[in-house]
Amino acid sequence: MQKIKKIGVMSLAYNLALVYLFVGIIIALLTLIAINIPYLQQVLSQTNPTLLSINPQDIAFIVVGYVAGGFVIGLLVALIYNLISKWTGGISVQLSSSEVEKQKKK
Length: 106
Known about the structure:
Elements: E1 2-4, H1 9-35, H2 38-47, H3 56-88, E2 91-93, H4 99-105
Antiparallel strand pairs: 1-2
Helix pairs in contact: 1-3
């Protein structure tokens, strides 16, 4: 077993931002689909008419918000993990070696 002692803060932040980009795009597309379904338009007009007035800038804000949120969460998670791993010793993981490393051992 090997231990993850430290996580690169910016590395995790960038990767989570990319993951949240895809999540934001999916949420934005589902929102666009939902507000264009006639039955939902009728229900929303009675319960929350402001949802029907979503424009493309709002959809872009959703995506940008998810990316920014993912980046900030990545920063915080990596910083907190790096602090905690000093006391806990880190997370144990088992890694498999590549074929090249296996051949070197022979």
